[in-house]
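Suppose you are handed a protein chain with no further information: no name, no annotation, nothing but its sequence. What can you learn? This example shows the usual starting point.
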Amino acid sequence: MDGGEVEEGRGGRITEETGRVLPGKLKILADPQEMGGELERELRKRGVEVEAVRLEVGDFVVSDRVVVERKSTRDFLRSILDGRLMDQAKRMREKFEKPVLVVEGREDPEELGKLHPHAVQGAILHLVMELGIPVLRTADSSQTASLLWLLARREREEGRRPPPLRRKRGDLPLPLQQRFVVEGLPGVSSVLAERLLQHFGSVEAVMRASEEELMRVKGIGRVKARRIRELLTLRYAAGTPPTSEGSP
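A reasonable first move is to predict its three-dimensional structure. Written in structure tokens, the prediction is:
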């Protein structure tokens, strides 16, 4: 069994290392600028539920105490040069108990040449020693996804609360709002919503598509297409109690 998991228990997975139960899916909040790319796909491949939320600080919220700022090597070096790095780090420290900085990718000789030889080491020392922010290096988005997954799993094992999943759709870029609308259809994941929008070109076109047209999209068979059309065409039954947000 992978990752130290020994069995499925009620409400989650039981890990070999701790014997503790991990209830449900691991969940991470991501700033919209981190959505739609390779990192989001890698996280979802690992079974992580990713929610787009406009964040005040950082790029990912892993738990009620852990926030992660992700920087490419080039942006990391540039942020030292223009002073953004320390400002971002201080704001993360003010908002979260355990901020983490992830620097992704190979070193950039061109950008490195613009800095004093001791500038990078000095910045890292200040982050670690003065602000208590670890600086972790990853080679690519796949390694970053693995790191975020491990952080989320560790926080769950420690009994920390997962970040609250909430969708402030009005604050999101229009393409993400469109995807969220399509994700509301029966059996439609974020990946399938993206395929539908790519295929039909707009939310309206998706909603007007026939069963046969829907079935031309990879991942949609006869049953799923019928369920989608049923939802879109069935007359609304007034008096049905609404499901309140946040209810179990």
